[in-house]
Amino acid sequence: MTNIVLLCNEKQQQTIHHFYKDAIIERKAPGVLFAVKLADTAITAYKSGKVMFQGAGAEREAARWGNASSAPVKVATNKGDKLPEDFASLSVIGSDETGTGDYFGPVTVAAVYVPADKIALIKELGVKDSKQLTDDYMRRIAPDLMEVCAHSILTLRNEKYNEIQARGYSQGKIKALLHNQAIKHVLTKIAPETPEYILIDQFAERGIYYNHIKNEKEIVQEKVLFSTKAENLHVAVATASILARYAFLKEMDRLSKVTGFPLQKGASGKVDDMAAKIWMKFGEETLRSMTKWHFANTEKARKLLQKRK
Ligand code: MN
Questions:
Q1: Distance 244 CA to ligand 1 centre (A)
Q2: pTM of this structure
Q3: Of the residues 83, 114, 175, 303, which has the maximum number of CB atoms within 10 A of its CB?
Q4: Would you tell me which CATH number, out of the four given (3.30.420.10, 3.40.50.300, 3.40.910.10, 1.20.120.1770), belongs to the domain 87-254?
Q5: Mean pLDDT of successive 10-residue segments in the chain (309 residues)?
Q6: Are residues 218 and 114 in contact, defined by beta-carbon separation less than 8 angstroms?
Q7: How far is the centre of ligand 1, averaged over its atoms, from the C-alpha of 230 (Å)?
């Protein structure tokens, strides 16, 4: 069993207490300040300043708070803006993207509005730490989430992606444009209601993000916060991440119908092999229409193809 101990000061223990406030359990043992019971982790904070994490999820939970036994302990490992303490319980639009590292398939971005009074329902519908979610699980819960939340999902298909990439758009710029657009759509859908904050899962620093979209007609800037690992900070981002993934999988399904077999995710050697196979069987145009053509996989596949000929 994993067992991690952090040494924290009083303020850090208070922050940790607040973070897990919904999972606090009664534990009357000598020296215990408070105890937390999660599905896969037990956390015990002691008056001495030690906080112990036990169980299968110990590493994941402890990672939120810093390095084991190192003092002073850093509170929160997220990079980006400092969020209000009660952030997880506020009405927030979250946005996230997926597909940027996959040779096959689109780039998808989703923005989702979760008002304070729907947070419990969203959790009930199965939104949890996205690292624990499988593709099948996300396919199952996404339709319910879409029903319940105002959202916008943008799927940038490969033809369009390749076209603008060839015109000089970086992936950062493409992502920034899509995030801005998706958030704008959601703001329009929920008007006159407005969120307390908008949280973007950070892929670029604020200055770089806004530089990418500086020529857009409408630039969403008010109340926008950036943080890495933002899916852990508000369910709106966790939900956005699930919907973006769902849209990615849907488009992969569509492309897989063209080839007759499921397309390999990622950008590994397996992807090169599959690309060469598709190139041989269906030709260059078809391969181009389902890939991010500028990836190194294209040249690797070209070499494989030449060998096979
Ligand atoms: Mn992300």
A1: 10
A2: 0.76
A3: 114
A4: 3.30.420.10
A5: 82 92 88 93 91 89 70 54 92 97 98 97 84 86 96 98 97 98 98 97 94 96 95 95 97 97 96 97 97 97 90
A6: no
A7: 8
